[in-house]
Design a protein that fits this description.
The complex is a heterodimer.
Chain A lengths: L3 E4 L2 E4 L5 E11 L4 E6 L6 E5 L3 E2 L7 E14 L9 E6 L12 E5 L1
Parallel strand pairs in A: 2-9
Antiparallel strand pairs in A: 1-3, 3-7, 4-5, 4-8, 5-6, 8-9
Chain B lengths: L2 E5 L2 E3 L5 E8 L7 E7 L5 E7 L6 E3 L7 E6 L4 E6 L8 E9 L2 E5 L3 E5 L2
Parallel strand pairs in B: 2-11
Antiparallel strand pairs in B: 1-3, 3-8, 4-5, 4-9, 5-6, 7-8, 9-10, 9-11
Classes of the chains: A mainly beta, B mainly beta.
Chain lengths: 109, 117
């Protein structure tokens, strides 16, 4: 089973600042299989990034994804108030389970 | 507009059974893979089960294997999750998700399953 470890657990920043979220895999994951999701309180998760670096439909360009192998990063430039939420990475490896990271909570400082 | 809408959640006693449904619309259901994902109260996301478009490839998380059964009816644009031998630790919001390639691009709002006596 591939374990995804996200860091930090909580990130406290102010609107207008930039954010860098990390997702580290216990073994190599093809970039094709790595996605990022955002979840706001009381809402379903929403796809942000797929294939490690492709933005989903309607996602603003302040969100970007990068990485390969075991280290992946979600970068948010110029935080907007609506960006404060919990972010999850997920991997769809060659075989299940299709694990999620434990999440990074991005909170307003 | 793509929509997936879960139903069937509720309160059930330990050891009991429940069947969740997911009604899909706005896309060609019989060409897409689907997943169930759950979220225990205050916890993160946990992948539960996967089914491909023809129902000939099915996977489960170890935590539910042997107790849960995923299925679909392409004629009815519907996905199901039959949950048996329910435990307190199965208490969660269960999400149905449309899968495109190797990511879940549309999610329902979820249905709450509470396992308690």
């Amino acid at each position: 089973e591939i374990v995804l470890t996200q860091s930090p657990g909580t990130l406290s920043l102010s609107p207008g600042e930039g954010a860098t979220l990390s997702c580290r895999a216990s073994q190599s994951v093809s970039s094709t299989y790595l996605a990022w999701y955002l979840q706001k309180p009381g809402q379903a998760p929403r796809l942000l990034i797929y294939g490690a670096s492709s933005r989903a439909t309607g996602i603003p360009d302040r969100f970007s994804g990068s990485g390969s192998g075991t280290d992946f990063t979600l970068t948010i430039s110029r935080l907007e108030p609506e960006d404060f939420a919990v972010y999850y990475c997920q991997q769809y490896g060659s075989s299940p389970p299709y694990t999620f990271g434990q999440g990074t909570k991005l909170e307003i400082k | 507009e793509v929509q997936v809408v879960e139903s069937g959640g509720g309160l059930v006693q330990p050891g009991g059974s429940l069947r969740l449904s997911c009604a899909a619309s706005g896309f060609t259901f019989n060409t897409y893979e689907m997943n169930w994902v759950r979220q225990a109260p205050g916890k993160g996301l946990e992948w539960v089960s996967y089914i491909n478009s023809r129902s000939d490839s099915i996977y489960y998380a170890d935590s539910v294997k042997g107790r849960f059964t995923i299925s679909r009816d392409n004629a009815k644009n519907s996905l199901y999750l039959q949950m048996n031998s329910l435990r307190a630790e199965d208490t969660a919001v269960y999400y149905c998700a449309k899968t495109s390639g190797w990511h879940n691009d549309y999610w329902g709002q979820g249905t709450l399953v509470t396992v308690s006596s």
